[in-house]
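Because discrete structure vocabularies remain unfamiliar, we first show an illustrative case, written as a sequence plus integers encoding its fold.
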Amino acid sequence: MIKDVEHKMEKAVESVRQHLMGIRTGRASADLVKPLKVDYYGSEVPLQQLASISVPEARTIQLQVFDKGAVQSIEKALQSSGLGITPRTEGTIIRLPLPELSEERRKELLKVAKAYAEDGRVAVRNIRRDGLEKLKKLEKDKVISADDSRSQQVTVQKVTDRFVAQIDQVLVQREQDILQV
């Protein structure tokens, strides 16, 4: 049961990590546009399937579109993504110049990052709660002894503390990226 709790908590931490990677910093990163979906001939297609993503310069993301017919759809998806980036198109190459972030915008992004981290901590705590409830039910049903239940509960708490610390570490690292000018 502890392995199940750990596995669920790992997924929660990975989800937080993915959300934080989607937050724009001063530097260009392919992770910024990877989660985008593009309406391609009536279906939602991940951007990675329609274009190769590269970072040729510190403040530019470049997309090499495979199908010329998808260029307009990709531009539309980028403009409606909320990233605040205006694409520049040259044939099948789309360049995304990242403007300098203002101090105010950096503070807003920090708030968003902290909210994602808090959501992750809450998810981990909910997994802990579910695990503890299962242990108490097993103890009540006389499947495990009270001593086993207590030792397992301590283990679940240690695992929870470890994953909350991982979320905090990821947040601190991302905060440094956002604040770096």
